[in-house]
Design brief:
Blueprint (H helix, E strand, L loop, with lengths): L9 H12 L6 H18 L2 H9 L7 H28 L2 H17 L3 H13 L4 H18 L2 H17 L3 H17 L3 H11 L11 H13 L4 H9 L2 H6 L6 H9 L3 H16 L8 H17 L4 E3 H8 L3 H13 L5 E4 L4 E4 L4 H28 L1
Helix pairs in contact: 1-2, 4-5, 5-6, 6-7, 7-8, 7-9, 8-9, 9-10, 10-11, 14-15, 15-16, 17-18
């Protein structure tokens, strides 16, 4: 499951194609091509467990002779790997024993046998002394986790990696882990932490096995827009040389970012519409599609309204290039959900902003916490008196 430097890990490419194969928005003619490509992956690596899963899901027709042929190849290769392990244990040193066990781990990963791969990785770890090599095993486990979207496995592996770093570990692996953790955070809707981790990794990115660099920039911009304030967005994203160098490679992304910062709302909505398809067809972002769409609109509506104490609905609709009715319905939803601090005067056709007083909110929170603390002290004093 190791990808060469600069190329995405093949199994993660396969995982994306499999995701698209089940996506309702992908056209049938495209699914025919995807099915052929997924089958080619299965055939090339003799992926018996995945083939059986795909057959069970109705994505492929069962071919018993093909299945038997793959099983036979797997058995023959497994026999050779076991012989190498036995030979290394009898005649060679600890390093060779570890390498033989690692080869068996990679075999199980290659054929997509998750449970046996995890067992063999654990066994390989028991033969491993160097912290760096243990970290590499964790990265293999993380790749397995992302292939199966097993977030429990990913979370535990990230914690394990952090514990290993307390024993040592080089900066290159630490920087790689930031990207893995950032992808995990983004996939579990923690966009703020994902943005922080991605931004920390921009100048040190080497994690090509997960995704290409332009995809990394795509994720960085998307998570940053809904996480950073305007000043931070300018410093860390809009003017970042690393982002400027590749942002043009992702269609609509430059317009999406710059039109927001430059308050060109009509252009922003146009670019946003262009990006929605890419977000919807991304296996990590798709589960959060509706949530992300709401968060982006909250950001852009808030930014527009911050410039005014009151503004007509018609003026706002014109700025965004949409109808008055659209803005009316949109803002009503966001105001009701507590996402926007304004009110609509339907008679006058005006929006009046009522920005929350930060100091007053802090004062109220302090009073509330103080009352809670006093209640706890009173209860504790009664217990002591008894």
């Amino acid at each position: 499951m190791e990808g060469e430097e600069g190329t995405q890990q093949p199994h993660l490419v396969l995982a994306h194609k499999r995701f698209l194969l089940t996506h309702p928005d992908v056209q049938d003619i495209e699914k025919v091509r995807l099915k052929e490509e997924v089958f080619a992956f299965v055939k090339a690596d003799d992926m018996v467990p995945l083939y059986e899963t795909l057959v069970g899901e109705g994505l492929m027709e069962k071919d018993q002779s093909f299945l038997d042929s793959m099983r036979k190849k797997n058995e023959e290769e497994l026999k050779k790997l076991d012989e190498k392990i036995a030979d290394a244990e009898e005649n060679l040193g600890e390093s060779e024993v570890r390498e033989a066990h690692l080869a068996k781990s990679l075999f199980y990963i290659r054929i997509a046998d998750k449970e046996k791969a995890l067992e063999q990785l654990k066994l390989t770890e028991s033969k491993t002394v160097a912290v760096g090599q243990k970290m590499d095993l964790v990265f293999f486990t993380l790749q397995l986790g992302f292939f199966y979207m097993d977030f429990d496995l990913i979370s535990k592996s990230i914690d394990k990696a952090k514990n290993l770093f307390e024993e040592g570990g080089d900066w290159e692996r630490k920087n790689r882990l930031k990207v893995y953790e950032g992808l995990y955070c983004m996939s579990t809707r923690n966009f703020k932490k994902a943005a922080d981790l991605f931004l920390d990794s921009i100048s040190t990115f080497t994690t090509y096995e997960l995704f290409p660099y332009d995809t990394f920039i795509f994720y960085t911009v998307l998570t940053s827009i809904i996480s950073l304030d305007r000043v931070s967005l300018k410093q860390k994203v809009v003017d970042a040389p690393e982002i400027l160098a590749v942002i043009g490679k992702v269609q609509y992304l430059s317009e999406f970012l710059n039109s927001l910062y430059d308050c060109q709302y009509k252009l922003f909505f146009s670019a946003f519409a262009g990006l929605t398809e890419q977000i919807k067809l991304d296996r990590y972002l798709q589960p959060h599609f509706r949530y992300y769409m709401r968060e982006v609109r909250t950001v852009v509506y808030s930014q527009f309204l911050e410039s005014y104490k009151s503004v007509t609905i018609e003026a706002m609709a014109k700025a965004f290039g949409v109808t008055v009715e659209f803005i009316d319905v949109e803002l009503s939803r966001f105001i009701a959900a507590g996402k926007l601090h304004c009110k609509i005067d339907k008679v006058a056709g005006v929006l009046e902003t009522n920005r929350p007083d930060a100091k007053n909110a802090l004062y109220q929170a302090t009073i509330k916490q103080g009352d809670f603390l006093l209640n706890r002290i009173q209860k504790l004093s009664r217990v002591i008196d008894l």
